[in-house]
Amino acid sequence: MKAKDAPPIDGLVVSGLTELALGALTGWPMAVAVSRPHDLPRLGIRSGARLRQWHLDLIMLGSLTAAAPRLVPNPPRAVALPLAVGAWVNANAFGVLAFRPELKDHPVYKAGVGASFVSASWGFTGLAAVAWKRWWHGR
């Protein structure tokens, strides 16, 4: 099947798979963290624990975001956009701390993380609400 003949791909799938790919790429520095933790500073990584959180969050949130349109087809934009933004910002907030752990108390960092929690919570809760509504009306 040629690309022009392929069915369109939902933006949440693209966003989630891209986040998942970044999570896979962070597996390389994770391998360094496990096998040669003393070499992490050469990569600019100052917190192995935050690196692990970043790696896992990218994989988990990326997978969930990519799966969302399969579980709830055609999610409304008011749900999909906050979900994608929240998943990206939330996961990557740990990446910031892997390199600059001292930023965890910075007001801009805290505001960004707070906003990402609101955004991801809105997106995932909205997705569940859409699923409930469609299920209820389809009974």
From TrEMBL:
Segments passing through the bilayer: 12-34, 78-99, 111-132
Record key words, sorted: Membrane, Transmembrane, Transmembrane helix
This protein's name: Uncharacterized protein
